[in-house]
Amino acid sequence: MPLRDHFHSPFTDRRSWDGFHGQWPAMIVIGLNRTLPQRYVAEPEVHLGSSIEIDIGTFEQDEPDFPTVQTTGNGSGTGAFWSLTPPTLSVATDLPKTDEYEVRVYDNKDGRKLVAAIEIVSPSNKDRPETRRAFVTKCAALFQKRICVTIVDLVTTRTSNLYGDLLKFLDLNDPSLTDEPTPLYAATCRWTHASNAWHLETWNYPLTIGQPLPTLPLWIAENLAIPLELEASYEETCRVLRIR
Question: Where exactly are the structural domains of the chain?
Fold first, then answer.
C-alpha cells in the first residue's frame, strides 16, 4: 500500500497526524517483539510538549524562615547582607515545545541496556533551528553510546532533512543525498569497529508519497541486525485507525 500524506487534505479532513504518530510506535513495538530474541524487548516512548529533566532541585517546605546569611569577608566581624542584583535579561518567552515519538530497544541480559532507538520525526522537530539542533544533538549523543539510531520522517509540512543535518553536525556527507535532499526519508545509522578503526554506517532511503515504505536494518548488537519492516507496521496502524 502507498505512503499517505498525513499532513494535508484529504487525510487531515478525517484524521489528525498526531493520532497516527501516537499509534505507530505501538504497532512497531508489536512487530519487533515478535522478532527480537528473548533477551531483548522493544517499548514505545511518547513525550508531548516540553520535556525537562531536573538534576538539582530546590523544594519549599513548611519550615520557619531561613535566617538571612551574613558575610564577614573582611575579617573584621562586621556582617554585610548579600544584596540580590537585577537580572541581566528578563523577557516573556515560552520553552521550545517538541513532541517525541520513538521506540526503544533494550538488552535485558545486560542490565536493561539501550541498544537501538527509532525516532519518528514530528513537525515540531523540524520547525525551528533550535528544535532541529536539539533533535540532531540527541541522535549524536546516542551514537556516542554506540546505540543504533533509525530516523523516520513523514512530515510533508517542513522541508528540512534531519538525517542530512545530523551528518553535517558530524562533519560527514552521504553521497546519496542531493544538494536539496528530500524531506521524506528513513535512515538507520550505527557506529561499528572494524580494522582497528571506528566506522559510521548508514542506510538512507528517500520516501515518496504513493510508494511503499522500506525495510531497514535495526542493529541490536555488533553482529546482529533484525529487519525493521516499516511498511507492515505502517499499514497496520492505518488499518487500526481506519485510514484509507
Answer: 11-49+95-240
